[in-house]
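Expect sequence, tokenised fold; for instance:
***
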Amino acid sequence: MDFFILLALFAFGFYGLNSQEQRKRIALLGSQLGQFQIEKLMESLTQGYLRALGEKNLARRDQIWQLLDSSETQLCEQFKRFAADFAKLDAAPTRVSTIAFAVPFADRLLPSATFDLRQAFAIHAQGLERAAMNLAQLSPRDKAFTLSAELFLMQHTCHWFCKSKNVASARLLVRHQTAYTQVLAAVSPATRDAYTRLLGTSAI
């Protein structure tokens, strides 16, 4: 009986510490994101892409693609500013544990198994800008596919920081019906290379 009481107390304490840590990370990220309209623009773009892809009238479809260009530019500019502001934060609170599940104080207990969220956001900002500029001269459909993948990977990183990798991957699958590995494969090669180097092969 004593064993089960101790086990319950341990589980309760573990859950409490995890919740406290996650609230701090959510508050930190929220305080920075709150100054921008990144989430709103992301939702608008995602819906716009679906409208364009579902439009059978070619002239109307081209018009939608053109209208989305300004939203893409605005989102990239805002995320670039956000990443620059986030880079000014101290290093300690921006470390992200590469352990797949949430462990209290993992970023401090195992600093070698972490990555810097500030660097991750810089990679995302560059990836979004490359996709929006369309230097590869992709078709509107393929450009939208790549930019969507860049956005989904950025969102996954945010959820990873706030919760854990497993939770972030589950949310990605539920919200966008896409696995983390699929998103990583769909972003530009430059983003994928920089991102995997930052995380290390053990965290992919």
Summary: The CA atoms of residues 6 and 138 lie 59 Å apart.
